Amino acid sequence: MCYLVGYAVRPVVTFNPNWHKIFTTESLTMTCNMRSPIPADKSYTWYKDNNLIYTGQSFVIVNAALHNSGNYQCKGSNTDRSDSVRLEVSHGWLILQAPLYIHEGDDVTLRCHHYPGYPAGMTKFIKDNTVIRNWGSDSVFHITNISIDRSGKYTCKKEVSRGAPVYSEVSISVKELFTDPEIKVSQNPIEEGDNITLTCLTRPSLFISATEVEFAFQRNGQNIQEFGSSSKYGILFAKLEDSGFYICEVRRSANGLTKKSKEINVHIQELFSHPEIVMNPDFPREGNRVILTCNTSINTLRNDIELQFAFYQNKKNVQKFNSSHQYIIPLAQLEDSGNYSCEARTLYSGMKKISAVVSVVIQGTISTYLLIICSVTLLLLILAILGFLYMFRQRPSVNNQDPMTGAPLRADEGEVNNPIYSAVRPKSMRRLAAAQEMSNEPESIYQNT
């Protein structure tokens, strides 16, 4: 939506050809133009020197005469009269023609026009007694993208009908296409969480369409809204980082003419400071009562602000939003250790801020440490015994030969002589083995004899 100041329901008179001076015998058409959509039943009336002269949208002058010079206006039904425009009809040798309207940024042509039907020679153009183009055959002078400082008195000289050079002059006043824009903010002061609107105001010429005007916004020299049809820039739920120096720009899309507003300083006031979480005691031990406090300061101008607080352990909520700014651990345990943060918010506007993370380490008591040490020692001892037994169970037999003869023993004989095996055999089996050995001794004696 385009926000333009100064648009009135008023028509504009245009000439075709677009010259404010013509010679007698020449023709010209005047048209009453409306910027807004025109109803089919719209009617128009024309005035010359405040006298009603014609009804219709266009007024045509054919074979102009001196009495056609004057001030012209038109009016539509249910509209004001247009601004007055001046037509000059001349019967002299030379006229310097300029467009009826000249606005900054326009490409302007000046025409050094001699009376029809007569020969003419070289032409020279002068501005404010300074030659801007010396003698030449071209009878027109072009000014590209004219600026307001090009206003002034222009003169042309030409040789007409083989006589001495004659001259004609015209005063040109370059009008603003639109005024320097001004940026306005919807409210002041501005607090965090407010919704604010910045508006770019400008007053355009009647000869520019609303669709030709584009707007852009900058903060601290950086574009925050590119050129477009909207003259407004909105900030929803304002934050401190939205503070800064703002300007707006207005541009005519047809020729790129751009103007900037002056800077305004937009300051967003802080409702409350970022919260800080504080722990008491500083070095808590197991079994202590631990208090975490969420500290923040409220804007002194807004004592009516109500805050709520929430607490988090390792990003998991441990206390939902309520009016208490403390989180209490009545009897601290080792599992209460972790990274804690708190969050503060306004009760009605929903403005939220979260604290930095604080590491809470609950230190164990001496008895706890002793219990842990004893438990670990016992566990290691049990593991060592199990490992020892496992190694001996996996160890191969060492008595595979007869100690007297060196001959290989049977598996059962080796087991008998194996002290480890003997230690774990049942007592009945050990007795049976001893009896067998005694029964075999006499045979061994006789054999040796």
UniProtKB/TrEMBL annotation:
Domain of life according to the entry: Eukaryota
Entry GO CC: external side of plasma membrane
Keyword field: Disulfide bond, Membrane, Signal, Transmembrane, Transmembrane helix
Residue ranges of every copy of the Ig-like domain listed in the record: 11-90, 181-265, 275-359
Pfam families: Ig_2 (PF13895)
Keyword field contains NAD: no
Single GO BP term: immune response
GO function term, MF aspect, one: transmembrane signaling receptor activity
Keyword Transcription found: no
Membrane spanning residue stretches: 369-392
Protein name in UniProt: Ig-like domain-containing protein
Organism whose genome encodes this protein: Aquarana catesbeiana
